[in-house]
Amino acid sequence: MYVNRIELSFDAGHRLLDYPGKCAAPHGHTYRAEVFVAARELDALGLALDFAALKRRMKAWVDEYWDHAFLLNDRDTALVGALGALPESKLYLFRGVNPSAEAMAQQLFEVARRQFGDLVRSVRIWESPGQYAEFVPDGTLLPCALQEEALP
Ligand SMILES: [Zn+2]
Asked: How far does the centroid of ligand 1 lie from the alpha carbon of residue 16, in Å?
């Protein structure tokens, strides 16, 4: 199995609606996104997937929708309304869920799957240098540590 990974970085604002702590305040992060693809065979060029194509298409989507945007839960009517009143605002709405690193990882995974199909294995969103959330679809092998915990 060959595993390729690309990394992007972008800046965005968000807040967690109803969160009992400081993450309820509008704030921003310099996020890092990692997209992992895996292939059993190499193509005629000796590649699992062309890094340039993967990075170009994922960067294009992130630049258009998330970079310098405010990521919001669509139920966050107060902030959607306030920021929506500014013509310079760029808003990206999550349907019925907070724009957590977890929700972002799932969203970006869906974007990657639409572009590159089943080659896409997982997506990580780093919210800060010390923490990330990863979306891995059901049925995919979990990291070794988790598999060991699941043993009887
Ligand atoms: Zn945050």
From this structure: 7
What is the mean predicted confidence (pLDDT) over 126-150? 77
What are the phi and psi torsion angles at 125 (to 5°)?
A: -120, 120
Burial class (CB in 10 A: 0-12, 13-18, 19+), 139: exposed
Q: Are strands 2-14 and 27-39 parallel, antiparallel or unpaired?
A: antiparallel
pTM for the whole structure: 0.90
**Residue 99: its pLDDT value, please?**
98
pLDDT band at 139 (very low <50, low <70, confident <90, very high): confident
Exposed, middle or buried, 1 (CB in 10 Å: 0-12/13-18/19+)? exposed
| Structural contact between residues 65 and 92, judged by C-beta atoms closer than 8 angstroms | yes
**26 Cα–ligand 1 center, Å:** 8
How much distance in Å is there from the Cα of 124 to the middle of ligand 1?
A: 15
Task: List domains and CATH numbers for the chain.
Answer: 2-150 (3.30.479.10)
Q: What are phi and psi of 113, to 5 degrees?
A: -65, -40
